[in-house]
Amino acid sequence: MSAAGDDAVARGAQLIAATGRRPRIAVLLGSGWGPLAERVRDPVELSYAELPAFPTLAIDGHAGRLLLGRIGPHEVAVLAGRKHAYEQGDAAAMKGALQTLAAAGVQVLVQTNAAGSLDRGLRPGALMLISDHLNVAQRSPLVGASGSARFVDLRDAYDPALREQARAAAARLGTPLQEGVYAWVLGPQFETPAEIRMLVALGAQAVGMSTVPETILARWLGLRVLAFSLATNMGCGLEDEALSHAHTLETARSAAQRAVPLLEAVIAGLAP
Ligand code: HPA
Fold first, then answer.
1. Residue 232, ligand 1, Cβ within 6 A
2. Could you give the angle at the alpha carbon of 262 between the alpha carbons of 102 and 130, nearest 5°?
3. Active site residue 229
4. Which of 9, 104, 117, 154 could be 16's S-S partner, Cβ–Cβ 3.0 to 4.6 Å?
5. Is the C-beta atom of 115 inside 6 A of ligand 1?
6. Number of structural domains, the chain?
7. Residue 268 annotated in active site
């Protein structure tokens, strides 16, 4: 259940504090970005199963891992495992996890995902810095929340100062990093060619099935957000390829060689 109680959140924050780590930056790893977990120095690992407000994951029997350690000068909490809204129709699936991290002192959420490209200039394997989003799914993780804080202002949801720092890190590495708008669809089916034409007409450069609910939650919690997409395929119908989850994962894995060093450099260079 996503509506974890305050007690569950507080207990999770205590468990994190009991490790002696004080993460200020959380990093949510999407498909293809998993190898970043190996770059965390001096890690202490908690299983999602130990953290009462974290989701139960059903993928391959893995519970999900929270790694507490350092990247560059920063204390980080790396989340290896995300529950998607398409699994049970719950856009708030990561709500308790983000509440726990915020209660533990996290101030910045760095998100990563795999996405379909809607822009012929963004080839499979290329990276995109998310500048804004379209909530095409029109679901909200804040349904059921109360108080005026739920009317979250999403202007600059993807923090302009952090984006500037990310662009600077990419330039130092010589890694191309275009900015664009990410459209969130519920999935889990891929889009039709007509839907892809619609998303292009709406002004999106990438489409995917994640990230937006967590951005909304993070802004509600007062966290600053930075987010990256790894293009794994061209949107359905833009080119002749057939789409499959296996192909998406395969491209994401091979592109990780470029994505992961960039992410590590971006995080190390953040001055939040
Ligand atoms: N559509 C939606 N989500 C995706 C895609 C796509 O083409 N590729 C990777 N995630």
1. yes
2. 60
3. no
4. 104
5. yes
6. 1
7. no
